[in-house]
Write a structure and sequence with these properties.
alpha/beta; TIM Barrel
Length: 223
Amino acid sequence: MKTCPRFKVCCIASVAEAQLAVDAGAAAVGLVSAMPSGPGPIDEALITQIAATVPPGVSAFLLTSLRDVDAIVAQQRRCRTDTIQLCDALQDGDHARLRAELTGVRLVQVVHVEDERAVDEAQRVAPHVDAVLLDSGRPSAAVKELGGTGRRHDWAISRRVVETCGKPVYLAGGLNADNAAEAIAAVRPFGLDVCSGLRTAGRLDPQKLHAFADAVRKAATSN
């Protein structure tokens, strides 16, 4: 029997969208702060408002592009989420500093899968965080892409990360109801993370959301 991963609905834009995600069975919601590019950023006041409505048992992820430890700490304290998704790479030692400053706040480091180097990067950061999230951005682009691209990357590389990094791994990038089962079978992630694949004209689409949730559940019970 296949393992049923959790799923996180990202780019949440309102209290109503968060409630839709929770009602559909999401284990986490993603709240996107300022980014150099991509969909979904909302202001910090709205992030704080939404995070306060997320029920116990569901995680509120603050997606940040910040790389300065003091700035990240200050942002989390303003927004009061229980998890920080670090969308860009940090310097050595910075995760430990965040741990010391933000006791009890979970750290999830994004690793962008551009090529095989992602395996080494995930292995390097995994000991310092609670989970790794594999996405399809391009941090080296002239205008950084740190997520929300809607692109699928090489899942064979992602599977190697799952098998070797020793921490829970979320899979993001181009996911939707049509490929959720394939992603689960190919990568065996701890969780799936989806944004654009659940949206129509920029808004969370209840039909796509429930189709995705159903696909994840069916993948867990199919042989």
